[in-house]
Amino acid sequence: MSAGLPRTARGEETKRKLIEAAEQVFSRFGYADASISRITDAAGIGQGTFYLYFDSKLQIFNELVEDLNHRVRLAMSAASAATENRIDSERAGFRAFFQFTADHPALYRVIREAEFVSPGALRLHYTRIVEGYIAGLRAAGAAGEISDIDPTVAAWALMGIGEMIGMRWVLWGDQVSGDDEAVEGSGADPFASGTRAVPEHVFEQMMRFIEGALGATRHAEVRNP
């Protein structure tokens, strides 16, 4: 039977349950070891029902990528909507991104696996994020809020900052010793975080770096020493 769109509210709820279960299963087991039966078990739904909504494991994986993309963009947009300038928008957007990552670690694990499982889904994920980012930076540059840095280059660079900071301090989370106690280590050790959130001093240093990179004053000094 070919999968189709849900036609009722109950159908929408069932599909939502399957997507949420897929988020858990793909995040925990990875694509290779995830199975349709594991997804349906996690959703509490019969395996035969799966095929009313999805043709294959790959299809639900792709729809999960799209769903995570939609939700993280929505969270960032909502957080930055009330801000009055680009730097405040960056600050609010990054806070929302890190919170979403803490709540949905599958965002990292699924997106990274998409590089090998479904490269088209990976590219679409980043493209959808960067398009809005470029538009916002271009508008900020026109308003004189930031320098005349290339908005495309800046958008990709800022996304890279968010991904690496989030991976280091949010995704890897606590390290536990043999006696189940959290271990704190050097900040240079990528496994030493002991947190599930970006520490405030790390966040402020990140923002200091971003403000310096985007700031119109610094750019003007370089051009007119």
TrEMBL record:
Pfam families: TetR_N
Keyword DNA-binding on entry: yes
Keyword Aminoacyl-tRNA synthetase assigned: no
Source species, domain of life: Bacteria
Gene3D superfamilies, sorted: Tetracycline Repressor, domain 2
SUPFAM superfamilies associated with the record: Homeodomain-like, Tetracyclin repressor-like, C-terminal domain
Keywords: DNA-binding
GO molecular function: DNA binding
Coiled coil: none
InterPro entries documented for this protein: DNA-bd_HTH_TetR-type_CS, Homeodomain-like_sf, HTH-type_Tx_Regulator, HTH_TetR, Tet_transcr_reg_TetR-rel_C_sf
PANTHER family hit by this protein: ACREF/ENVCD OPERON REPRESSOR-RELATED, ACREF_ENVCD OPERON REPRESSOR-RELATED
Name this polypeptide is given: TetR/AcrR family transcriptional regulator
